[in-house]
Specification:
The complex is a heterodimer of chains A (about 220) and B (about 675). Chain A is α/β, with parallel strands linked by helices. Helix content of chain A is about 40%, strand content about 10%. Chain A has a five-stranded mixed sheet with strand order 2-1-3-4-5, covered by helices on one side. The chains are: A alpha/beta (about 220), B alpha/beta (about 675). Chains A and B meet through helix 5 of A and strand 7 of B.
Chain lengths: ~220, ~675
C-alpha cells in the first residue's frame, strides 16, 4: 500500500473545503446532469458529479483538481446517498484524485506495449525534469503518476496529461512537451510525430490507392 | 415448485430458491464465505462453485444461480473439487498464516474450509499483500490483512443495521474494507459483524486474546439488557464469563444481538457485591450473613413491608419476594422503578401483541414516544425489514435517527386525539397496521387504546397494538403482580417500614426516607449505596431464571458461573431470610419454587408465548403534553451491569458523548 494516496489532514481540508458548493456555471451543468436520470435514480449521477466537482476544485486551485472529503460529502448530499457510497466510487476510479495534484497531472503509461515502445525513456525524461513518481514538483506544475494501460497502444508510448493524450513519444519529445507546458506555450495533443490518429506509422501499407480518393478495387480482384 | 437432482437425488425446492439452497435441502454441504442467508447475495467469493447441467461447461456460483426445474447439480465431481481447491488457493494467496495469534482460530470458516476443501500445500512463494489496520470503533478490532473481501460486514451495516458507514474503497488488490473515514461505526449492532466475518479480520476488541473457543464452557441463557429477551450463549472459563454471543431464535433475535448484550459481560466481574453489608453510623460495613439477617429480623415492620423489583431480575426472585411478603400479609409490590403508573388490569393492553417476528409483516406503523433503536434494537431491525417490504412509518416524539425514513408527527401527544389525514388514510388502507407505544408514550396509554378501533388495529388473526417495554423483568413482574395502581407513588404513600429492593437501582431512594432498605442485588450501584442492609445476590449469568420478554414469551436461562464471594442466588437469600423472620417459605429447591410459582401464575410454567386475553380497560382517552425526551438517555449505560463495564463506558463516551478515541494512524 506504499503508493496509496496520502489523504490530507481532515480538519484542514474541512476548514478549506467545508463550504464547497457549485458555482453558477456548474450549477447549470449539475441540473442538466441530474435531469438525465429518472427520479429515484439520482445515485446514477455519482460519477458525473464527482467529475464536475473535481474540475471545479481544479479551477479554484489552478490544478487538475482533486476531491477533498467535504466535496465528496457535498456530492453525496446533492444526490441523497450515504457518504460512504460516493466515497467508494471516488476511491475506485483512478481518474478521481484523492490527494492534491499539480496543474498538469502527467500519467505515464507503463503497460507492455508502451514499455516495449520506450516508456522507460519517457519516464527518464520526466525524471530529468525533476518529476518524481507520486509527487508534485515544488513549483506545483507537475504531478507524475505511472499508470496502467490507457488504451492508446497503437501509438505507444504515451502519456495522459489532464484531459489530453500525447502519443508517439520519445525522450526528446517528452522533454520538449514538458518544457512547453512549463512555459505556457501551446501544445498539440495526439500523436507527436504528426500522424493522424492511429494510422500505420510508416504510411499506409494496404489499400494505398484509397488514401486520397475513393478507388474501386473490385476490378483488380483475381 | 422446481424439482432438481442433486448428486443424483431428486429434491423439490421452493420457487425462487437458489442452487445453493437446493443443495442444502438435499443435505449437501456447500462451502461459502460471502453468502449469508440473512444478507443479500453478493456472489464474490466463488467458494460455492458447483457443476450444473444444463449450462455452460464450467463451474457456477451456486449462491447466485436460481434453481430451475430438471437441473442436475453435482457437488462432488472432479470439476467441483478442482474449482474449490483453486478458489481456496487464490483466497489464501493474500491471507496471512497467522492462525496461532488469531482470535478467530478454532471458529474460523476459512480454517475449517481450507482443511475440508483446500489443497494440502501452497504453491505461492511471492510476497503477500499487507493492509494497515482500520479503526471501526470500541467493539470491533480489525486485522485487515486477513480480510478476504466477502463484503458481509458492508451488507450487514447497510441492510440490517441501517448505518451505511462501512464500505470497500480502492479496487483490485488495493481494495480495503473501512468504516467511513475510519470513524467508529455508530451502530448499536456493530458487534454482529464480528460473528459475520468468516475470517479473523473483524474480531471482538474487548475479547481480544482472552480465550480459545475450545476451552470455554458454553451455557445457553437469556439476555437481560433489554426486554427483547435475546437468546444468548455465555462462554465462560473458570468463574468468569468471557463473552456473550447470540443463539439463533427466529422468533426473537434471529441471530443478532446488540452491543450491550454482547459486551456488558465484562461488567460482571467489576463492582460486585460479594459480602453482606450493614449500615452502621451512616457507613456500610461488612457483616456476616447471620448478622445481616438478624439486623433485618429486628425491624418490627409487621405487614407494612414492600418489594421493588429492578429491571434485570428473574421471575423466581420476584416470586420468592412476593411469597415472603404474602406470608407477612403484604402485597406492596412494584417493578416500575421510575414511577410509571400505566394501567395493568389487562396484560394484553401492555403487551407487544403483534410479536417481534410479526412486526416484519406490518404495512403501516405508528410509533408513539419510543426511540425503538435504543429501547429494543432488535425490534428496530424488524421494523426495517417491514419497511423494505413497503411499510410506512409515522412517529410521535422528538426527532431521532431510527435508521429508516419516518414521518414525524411532532412532539405533542395531543396529536393522538387528532391524527393528520395522511395517517388515518394510511391506516384505513392498511391490512396489517401496527401501533407501538414506547416508554415515553405510556403516559397516554388510554389515548393509544382508544385508537385501536378507529385505526382498525385488530383484525382477524392480527393484533396491531403493542407496548414496547425496556426492562427484562417487566412482563414477568406484571404477571406476578409487581404493579400498584398508582405506580411506585403508592408504595411511597404507604410508608413501608421495610422494603426489599431486588436489584432496583433507578428508584428515587430519597422518597423512602423512613424505610429500612434492604438491597438484594449483584452490583454496588445506586441501590446498594442507599441501602441499610446489602445482601449480595447473583447476576443473570449466575442463576437459572425465567424471563418473560416484551411479547410475553416465557424463556428460561441456565447458570453459567457461580456468584463471587459470599454472594448467593437471590431466591435462596429470601428463603433463608424467611426462616429468620419466622415465616419459612415452602420451597427448598429451585424446582419446588418453580412448582409453587406455577400454581400462583400458571403462565410462567410453560415456555413459549403466553396468551393474554384482549380486554383493554376503558381509560381516560384524552392525551396531551409535549414529549421532551425518551426514557433512555444513554443506550450503553442503562443498568448496573453496563455501568460497571469498561467496554460500555467506553462505548458511551465515544458513541454517545462524542469523545474521540481513534488512534492516530501509524
Amino acid at each position: 500500500m506504499a503508493e496509496a494516496p496520502k489523504i490530507p489532514d481532515e480538519a484542514e481540508t474541512r476548514a478549506r473545503w467545508g463550504a464547497f458548493a457549485w458555482n453558477d456555471e456548474n450549477q447549470k451543468k449539475a441540473n442538466e446532469i441530474l435531469g438525465r436520470y429518472p427520479k429515484g435514480r439520482e445515485q446514477s449521477a455519482s460519477i458525473p458529479f464527482l467529475d464536475l466537482a473535481q474540475r471545479q476544485v481544479g479551477a479554484e486551485t489552478q490544478t487538475q483538481g482533486w476531491l477533498p472529503v467535504p466535496v465528496i460529502e457535498f456530492v453525496a448530499r446533492q444526490i441523497g446517498v450515504p457518504y460512504m457510497r460516493v466515497y467508494e466510487v471516488a476511491t475506485f476510479y483512478t481518474m478521481f484524485n484523492m490527494a492534491p495534484v499539480g496543474r498538469y497531472h502527467v500519467q505515464v503509461c507503463g503497460t507492455t506495449p508502451c514499455l516495449l515502445g520506450g516508456s522507460d525513456d519517457v519516464l527518464a525524461a520526466c525524471k530529468n525534469k525533476g518529476l518524481i513518481k507520486g509527487r508534485t514538483t515544488p513549483d506545483g506544475l507537475f504531478t507524475l503518476t505511472e499508470v496502467e494501460c490507457l488504451g492508446a497502444c497503437a501509438n505507444a508510448p504515451m502519456v495522459q496529461i489532464n484531459d489530453d493524450n500525447f502519443e508517439d513519444l520519445d525522450y526528446d519529445k517528452t522533454s520538449a512537451l514538458l518544457e512547453a507546458l512549463a512555459n505556457g506555450t501551446p501544445v498539440t495533443p495526439g500523436s507527436q510525430t504528426g500522424r493522424r490518429d492511429s494510422c500505420a506509422a510508416g504510411g499506409p501499407t494496404n489499400l494505398v490507392a484509397m488514401v486520397d480518393e475513393n478507388h474501386d478495387y473490385r476490378g483488380e480482384w483475381a | 415448485m422446481p424439482i432438481v437432482k442433486v448428486d443424483g437425488v431428486e429434491v423439490e425446492v421452493p420457487a425462487g430458491a437458489t442452487v445453493l439452497q437446493a443443495c442444502e435441502i438435499a443435505g449437501k454441504e456447500i462451502p461459502r464465505f460471502c453468502y449469508h442467508e440473512r444478507l443479500s447475495i453478493a456472489g464474490n467469493c466463488r467458494m460455492c462453485l458447483v457443476e450444473v447441467k444444463p449450462g455452460p461447461p464450467k463451474p457456477q456460483a451456486s449462491c447466485a444461480l436460481p434453481a430451475a426445474d430438471k437441473q442436475e447439480i453435482f457437488t462432488n465431481s472432479p470439476m467441483v473439487k478442482n474449482a474449490r481447491e483453486g478458489v481456496m488457493e487464490f483466497l489464501l494467496i493474500n491471507h496471512p498464516l497467522d492462525c496461532p495469534i488469531c482470535d478467530q482460530g478454532g471458529e474460523c470458516d476459512l480454517q475449517d474450509q481450507s482443511l475440508a476443501y483446500g489443497r494440502g500445500q501452497s504453491r505461492y512463494d511471492e510476497n503477500k499483500r499487507a493492509v494497515t489496520e482500520k479503526y471501526m470503533g470500541p467493539i470491533v478490532k480489525t486485522v485487515m490483512t486477513r480480510c478476504i473481501q466477502c463484503t458481509r460486514c458492508i451488507r450487514f451495516a447497510e441492510e440490517v443495521a441501517g448505518v451505511e458507514e462501512i464500505g470497500a474503497i480502492g479496487r483490485g488488490e488495493d481494495m480495503q474494507i473501512v468504516s467511513y473515514l475510519e470513524h467508529a461505526v455508530t451502530s448499536e449492532l456493530s458487534g454482529n459483524v464480528v460473528d459475520l466475518c468468516p475470517v479473523g479480520a473483524l474480531t471482538s476488541k474487548p475479547y481480544a486474546f482472552e480465550a480459545r473457543p475450545w476451552e470455554l464452557r458454553k451455557t445457553l441463557t437469556i439476555d437481560v439488557m433489554d426486554a427483547v429477551g435475546t437468546n444468548i450463549r455465555l462462554d465462560s472459563r473458570g468463574r468468569q464469563v468471557l463473552r456473550a454471543v447470540p443463539r439463533i431464535n427466529e422468533d426473537v433475535n434471529e441471530e443478532w444481538a446488540s452491543d450491550k448484550t454482547r459486551h456488558a459481560v465484562d461488567g460482571l466481574v467489576r463492582r460486585r457485591l460479594d459480602k453482606p453489608y450493614i449500615r452502621k453510623n451512616g457507613r456500610l460495613t461488612e457483616a456476616s450473613w447471620d448478622a445481616a439477617f438478624l439486623a433485618i429480623s429486628q425491624v418490627d415492620a409487621g405487614s407494612n413491608i414492600a418489594a421493588i423489583a429492578g429491571d434485570l431480575v428473574d421471575c423466581e426472585t420476584m416470586y420468592a419476594a412476593k411469597a415472603l411478603l404474602g406470608s407477612l400479609g403484604s402485597t406492596l409490590l412494584e417493578g416500575r422503578q421510575t414511577g410509571m403508573d400505566y394501567d395493568t388490569t389487562n396484560l394484553a393492553a401492555v403487551n407487544f401483541n403483534t410479536t417481534i417476528a410479526g412486526t416484519e409483516k406490518a404495512d403501516v406503523i405508528l410509533i408513539v414516544g419510543s426511540n425503538v433503536r435504543w429501547e429494543a434494537p432488535l425490534v428496530n431491525t424488524r421494523i426495517r425489514k417491514a419497511i423494505k417490504k413497503g411499510a410506512k412509518v409515522f412517529a410521535i416524539g422528538p426527532e431521532t435517527e431510527l435508521t429508516y425514513k419516518v414521518d414525524w408527527l411532532g412532539e405533542d401527544l395531543g396529536v393522538l386525539g387528532n391524527l393528520p389525514d395522511a395517517v388515518t388514510e394510511a391506516f384505513a388502507k392498511a391490512e396489517r397496521p401496527m401501533m407501538i407505544v414506547g416508554g415515553a408514550g405510556l403516559k397516554s396509554l388510554g389515548a393509544a387504546l382508544a385508537l385501536v378501533s378507529p385505526l382498525g388495529l385488530i383484525k382477524d388473526g392480527w393484533n396491531g397494538f403493542n407496548v414496547l417495554h425496556m426492562a427484562a423483568s417487566r412482563m414477568g413482574g406484571l404477571m406476578l403482580g409487581y404493579a400498584q395502581k398508582g405506580g411506585i407513588a403508592d408504595v411511597v404513600a404507604a410508608k413501608p417500614k421495610l422494603a426489599f429492593f431486588l436489584g432496583a437501582d433507578e428508584v428515587d431512594f430519597a422518597a423512602f426516607e423512613g424505610t429500612f432498605k434492604i438491597y438484594i442485588g449483584h452490583h454496588g450501584d445506586k441501590g446498594a449505596a442507599a441501602a441499610d442492609v446489602v445482601l449480595p445476590g447473583a447476576s443473570y449469568a449466575e442463576k437459572s431464571g425465567t424471563y418473560v420478554n416484551l411479547e410475553g414469551r416465557v424463556q428460561r436461562g441456565e447458570r453459567a458461573v457461580f456468584p463471587p464471594g459470599d454472594a448467593r442466588e437471590d431466591w435462596t437469600i429470601l428463603r433463608a431470610l424467611s426462616g429468620m423472620m419466622g415465616k419459612t417459605l415452602p420451597f427448598d429447591t429451585l424446582e419446588e419454587l418453580r412448582a409453587d410459582m406455577a400454581t400462583d401464575t400458571p403462565a410462567l410454567a410453560t415456555l413459549g408465548l403466553a396468551t393474554f386475553d384482549w380486554a383493554p380497560p376503558a381509560l381516560n382517552a384524552a392525551a396531551s403534553g409535549e414529549l421532551t425526551g425518551y426514557p433512555i438517555k444513554d443506550f450503553y449505560l442503562t443498568n448496573a451491569i453496563c455501568r460497571a463495564s469498561p467496554t460500555m463506558q467506553r462505548c458511551s463516551a465515544e458513541l454517545v458523548h462524542g469523545v474521540d478515541f481513534a488512534e492516530a494512524a501509524e
